[in-house]
Batch of 2 targets.
Target 1
Amino acid sequence: MNTLTDNQAVTITNVSILPPIAQKKMQCWIRSRHLIYSGNFFIYETVDYSAVERFGDCIEALGGAVISVNSVGKVWMGDRRQVILYRAKASLQTPHHDLHHYWIKYGSFRTRFDERV
């Protein structure tokens, strides 16, 4: 049995998402219109900042990188509450990734928060 003494440090590593799980999550975001493909970049919009962090984990698991995260304004939730809308921009290094083909089939050119509806 391995036990720790008082002077030993415990290191906790970040648990990364496996690529198949990351791809499934991103497919779900494409269908729900949180994630769109614009130019050569994936654009993710949400009102939950922890979802932006999960998006970043998924992009990194697939070999990409998050380029920027910005707050783009406020969105009404109900009659009396406004929340901040976050937009993350990411790139995958592979130009013909399966997610691009999935977006062509099931995606949209506008996110669910787009006001041009």
Target 2
Amino acid sequence: MNTQEIEMPPHHTASANGLAGAAMVLGVIGLSTSIFFIGGLLGGIGLILGIVALMTAKRTGNGRGKALTGVLTSAIAIVVSVLVAVFFVWYANKTQECYQPDGFQQYKQCVHQQLTGK
């Protein structure tokens, strides 16, 4: 029987891959749901996990691409969610007089008048 030693590949920690993968998934889901405000929350969690995964990837060399994707998509999701929230606040403020219409046509006409100033 041949007793040669078998070289094992370097051990990569599952947590580095797991954090990077979770950050990427949360970033992508956060970005796709950012117009519903939940994307900002998912993006925030993804951003934190992505930053931790990037620091881990710096030490282990594992998961850098996924972590970077998670950080970028999460950051974009947060920005889009904030912009959507600002738009909704602006729109609600601009059309607050139109919230008690008798019908949809009246509401539509009121909103048009409020937004165009006519």
